[in-house]
Amino acid sequence: MAATETSFATLMQLELVKKRDLTAQGVSILQALAHGLQPATPEAAAEAAHQLDRLCPPLEDSDQASDYLWGLWEIIMAIAGSPDVESEVHERLVEILRQLKQHARGELGFSLDPTSTGAEFTQVSAQIWRNISLFGARYLAERLLGAYLELAYTLRDALEQDLDKLPDVGIAECRIQVACGWIQYAAKPLLRWAWENMDSTNGSFYCGPSAVCLERWRFWLGRFDELANEDSGLGEETRKAASEAAETMRAVEKLVDDALS
């Protein structure tokens, strides 16, 4: 079986993709994305991006073009968010989108936080949110998507709120783990944002300037340190993730300090 056919079959088996009722156009989109997965080369990603661009209707037909872009983004989110997706697939999607950005057909956002939308919070919805957030963080790190507000809201909800008031400790741990995932991949753009001092609404625990600034950055770092302590009441996995997030933030700070000194 050809590599593209194998990749297409793999994508079709992903949990959130299987749930979609794909149109003929959706199948073509999935086939193009599969082309960029194997072999894992820039050339394959470039060809996948070229195929996706060819599938897009003319921008003069705004309704069809908009429908196509939304359909493309929904399929990408279904792949990236599937609980059974592998990290390597995220990496290949980012490479395809890096190539696709050169065609500049449009930009769409996302928000699938199951802890604040009123949707039922389950292990599956939590895993989907974690996967989507990790994908968004990778995308932001490559400067392909301006998901800064998603990042700021995630850190605010995880680090600036009284997590003891949440109805389920699993929600608190999920928020913290997702925040740690953003830091894992997107600490550098976050620190750049802090230097630029852009506005963002505060959580109740944070009393500093209403902006993503260095003071807020250091508050978040301190909160990760607090959450990493055994007396935080969090599980071992979450405490470890918080500790690693704090270490990542310190490492990024040092890189910036060394570059400026």
Automatic annotation (TrEMBL):
It comes from the Eukaryota. InterPro entries: OpdG, Oxopyrrolidines_Biosynth-assoc. Pfam families: DUF3632. PANTHER family: NUCLEAR PORE COMPLEX PROTEIN NUP85, NUCLEAR PORE COMPLEX PROTEIN NUP85-RELATED. This is Uncharacterized protein. It comes from Parachaetomium inaequale.
